[in-house]
Amino acid sequence: MDTLSFTPRIASKMHIRIIDPDLAMCEALSVVFRLEGFQTSFSIDLERALFSNTAINVIILNLDLPSASGIALLRQAKAELGAVPVFMLANSSDVDAAVLAMKFGAEDVLTKPIDVEHLVNLVRTALRRDVHLGASRDGERHVEVRGFSQLTDREREVLQLIVNGRSNKETGRQLNISPRTVEVHRARVMQKLDAKNAADLIRIVMTR
Q1: 8-128 architecture in CATH?
Q2: List of residues 6+ apart from 96 with CB closer than 8 A
Q3: Which helix (H) or strand (E) holds 136?
Q4: What is the DSSP string of 159-192?
Q5: Where does CATH 1.10.10.10 sit in the chain?
Q6: In this structure, are residues 43 and 13 in contact, taking their beta carbons and an 8 Å threshold?
């Protein structure tokens, strides 16, 4: 069985927002994802491009917008929707723009013409991840833990600080608990996530 597959019931709850001034591209991607069982909406109106009252699970956004900056909309998405995955579509290959997009939290940058099967698989993989990384802010990455139901709220807080390089002492000070208590929480997190050490724990988080 394909490990990236969703049941129709689960996929039908997932909403993908497509933002591209090319109407044909919006319609084509919308059809593809609807055939895969997802809900979709799209916008070519860049002034009101991003968000409606409908919950959004994934954003597909054109990097090369003519009347607004794709990077600006990416940053807005990350600010308003946290760690919702954002995939950027580029009209042509531009390494510098792609690097900048990734810095501000894009999951990936794909150059047109788009391999839609590859894009669908990337979206499915992103939706299955338990940990989502937000954009870098002041040198730190926001971590949103959606899965890992075995972790307690405190363990999630400790995980967030570990990923951002905090020592046990710094974590304890920030959470108002003792360094020894941090060690206990940290050990439980590593045990539950089957991590051998802190480096292995970060690797698990970054690849989930």
Answers
A1: 3-Layer(aba) Sandwich (3.40)
A2: none
A3: strand 131-137
A4: HHHHHTT--HHHHHHHHTS-HHHHHHHHHHHHHH
A5: 140-207
A6: no
> Which residue intervals of the chain bear CATH 3.40.50.2300?
8-128
pTM of this prediction? 0.60
Cβ atoms of 109 and 80 closer than 8 Å: no
Which class for 123: exposed (0-12), middle (13-18), buried (19 or more C-beta within 10 A)? buried
| pLDDT averaged over 10-residue windows placed end to end, the chain, 208 residues | 39 80 93 92 74 75 78 84 85 87 88 92 78 55 56 83 84 90 88 77 65
| Cα 160 from Cα 154, distance rounded (Å) | 10
3-class secondary-structure state, position 42: strand
Q: What share of the chain is helix, strand, coil (3-state, %, to 5)?
A: 45, 20, 35
Backbone angles phi, psi at 45, to 5 degrees: -90, 100
What is the CATH architecture assignment of 140-207?
Answer: Orthogonal Bundle (1.10)
Whether 107 contacts 119, CB under 8 Å: no
Cα angle 77-82-87, degrees, rounded to a multiple of 5: 50
